[in-house]
Amino acid sequence: MFLKMKKNIYLLFLVSFIPAISVSQDTTDAKTESGKFMLGMRSTVSAFSDDNYSGMGVGGQFRLKLGSRLNSDWFADYITTDIGGIAKRSDYHIGWSVLYYPLHNEIKKGKLTPYILAGHCFDYTEVKKNGGIYTLSSMPAKRWSSAVQSGLGAHYNLSDNFDVSLTAQYMLHLGNEINADIFNNDITGEKDVLISSRKNASLEGHLLINLSLNVYIADLWSKK
Question: What is the CATH number of domain 37-95+113-164+172-218?
Answer without folding.
Answer: 2.40.160
